[in-house]
Structure formats: C-alpha cells, structure tokens
Amino acid sequence: MAMSQRATAILATRLIALIATLIAAVVMASSHEKGSIFGAISYEAKYSDTPAFKYFVIANVVVTIYGFLVLFLPSESQLWRLVLVFDLVLTMLLVSSISAALAIAQVGKKGNSHAGWLPVCNQIPKYCSQTTAALVAGFVGLVVYFLLVCYSIHRDLDPFLVRKN
After folding, report:
1. Cα angle vertex 128, ends 124, 132, to 5°?
2. DSSP reduced 3-state for 27
3. Which residue of 4, 19, 118, 141 has the lowest C-beta tally within 10 Å?
4. Beta carbons of 130 and 30 less than 8 angstroms apart
C-alpha cells in the first residue's frame, strides 16, 4: 500500500473513531426521560444520576478531544510513537468506562433480584434506548481504537521482526 493511501486509511479510521466517541458522549449526555412508579411517584431519569454514566460521558469526551487533536499531527512526525502510547491508554479508558456503564445498564434493564432492585426500562423505555445506543457507539469507538493500537504496534514496534534493517 502506498504511503498516501496508508495515511488516508489511518485518517479515515481516526475519523470513524472520533465520530463514534462523539456520538456516544452526545447521546448519553442527552438521555433523560420522566417516568412514574405505580402511577403515583414520578421521577426523572438522567445520565447524571449515575456516576458510571457520568464517567462514560467524560471518558468519551476526553477521547473525542484527543482524536480531534491527533488529526492535525503531520504523518511524518516523530510524535506518532507517543500517539501509540496515548492510543493505548485511551483505549483502556474506553474499556473501563464502557464496562462500568454496561454494568449499570444491565441492572436497569434486568434488575437484581438478590439486591431487591427492580428493572426500570419498562417505565422509561426512551431513556434505556438512548443509553443502549450510546453504549453501542462507544463500543464501535473502542473497537476502532483497538484496531488503531494493533496497527500502530505493528508499524512502529515491528513485533514480528519482519522488517530488515
């Protein structure tokens, strides 16, 4: 693959990751719905009510800003080895934020009979749908960043020792 084609492919991949993490943050941050329990007690479900969802939004915003800044790095810069380290750290940040948010979303959807927590997605289906969409977008961003890390390791570190010096 020619160098310009490779750079274009990496740019496109980074744009996909940027868009996915941006969508994940925006969809989760805009998720809210009012519901009621037994028709008597009303409440509003928002992402900011749950620390795991706040962490998910903050992590995706951080990764989105980083992804935007990396787009302006020249392809022949020596900083790409440092980008590999940041890609790896931010991929781990995405893994932890998605894991935390997914655990809370699972409790919201299925409940926990041992703890006495009832499922709430029947009362607030729009909120649960938005949360699910945000998690899917976040997972897409995670997969793309994982692929970028794998490619960068192969390009910069040559783990299989196939380059001849």
Report:
1. 170
2. helix
3. 4
4. yes
Cα angle value 108/99/11 (rounded, 5°)? 125
Q: What is the pLDDT of residues 46-98, one digit of tens each?
A: 889 999 999 999 999 999 999 999 999 887 788 888 999 999 999 999 999 99
Distance from the Cα of residue 115 to its chain's centroid: 29
Taking alpha carbons only, the member of 111, 115, 118 closest to residue 38 is: 118
For 76, list phi and psi in degrees, rounded to 5: -95, 10
Dihedral over Cα of 51, 120, 122, 39: its sign: negative
The residues that bridge with 32 in the sheet, in sequence order, are 46
> What DSSP assignment string belongs to 128-150?
HHHHHHHHHHHHHHHHHHHHHHH
pTM, two decimals, is: 0.88
- Whose tokens are 């800003």? That residue is 65
Q: Which residues make beta-bridge pairs with 112?
A: 117
